């Protein structure tokens, strides 16, 4: 499975590089020439599902879209994600954790590891969140 995810991420990177070279003026955020990589780590004691998304860009055919990479992490697992953007302000990407529906989302800088945490509640449900990194240390 890691090979499939890495292949998918490589395709995202190749697509991003194509966007940066062909139509950087059509990206809604910064695009870099070399991929920036970061880790997503699951420290919850159950599996988590989610996705990482770039800012929007306009494809050559005029369609407004964004890059997405989905993941499933077992307890204690981690995954490296690499992207060239386009980024949200402060070189941030959007992180969404989900079950059947989204349960947590944030914009996070990619300057370090993104840690997913979770706890089981007394009623048998779970509470899941990520420690997102703010590009501005004064932003909460």
Helix share, percent:
10-25%
Low-confidence stretches: 3-25
Report the sheet with the most strands, covering strand number, pairing sense and barrel closure.
Answer: 4 strands, mixed
Q: Report the CATH architecture.
A: Sandwich
State the secondary-structure class: alpha+beta
Task: Describe the model.
The chain has 140 residues and is an alpha+beta fold. The protein has a single domain (2-131), classed as Immunoglobulin-like (Sandwich). 16% of the residues lie in helices and 44% in strands. It has one helix and eight strands; from the N terminus they run αββββββββ. Strands 4-1-7-8 form a four-stranded mixed β-sheet. It has a four-stranded antiparallel β-sheet with strand order 3-2-5-6, with helices on one face. β2 (48-58) and β3 form a beta hairpin. The longest helix has 22 residues, at 2-23. It is elongated, with a radius of gyration of 16 Å. The N and C termini lie far apart (35 Å). Residues 3-25 have low confidence and may be disordered.
Topology of this structure?
Blueprint: H1 2-23, E1 36-42, E2 48-58, E3 64-73, E4 78-83, E5 92-98, E6 102-109, E7 114-120, E8 126-131
Parallel strand pairs: 1-7
Antiparallel strand pairs: 1-4, 2-3, 2-5, 5-6, 7-8
């Amino acid at each position: 499975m890691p090979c499939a995810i890495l292949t998918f991420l490589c395709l995202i990177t190749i697509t991003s590089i194509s966007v940066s070279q062909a139509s950087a003026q059509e990206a809604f955020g910064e695009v870099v020439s070399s991929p920036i990589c970061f880790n997503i780590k699951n420290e919850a004691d159950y599996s988590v599902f989610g996705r990482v998304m770039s800012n929007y860009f306009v494809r050559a055919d005029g369609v407004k879209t964004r890059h997405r990479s989905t993941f499933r992490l077992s307890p204690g697992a981690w995954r490296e994600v690499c992207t060239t953007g386009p980024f949200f302000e402060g070189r941030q990407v959007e992180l969404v954790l989900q079950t059947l529906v989204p349960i947590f989302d944030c914009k996070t800088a990619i300057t370090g590891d993104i840690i997913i945490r979770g706890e089981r509640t007394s009623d048998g449900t779970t509470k899941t969140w990520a420690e997102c990194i703010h590009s501005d240390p004064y932003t909460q």
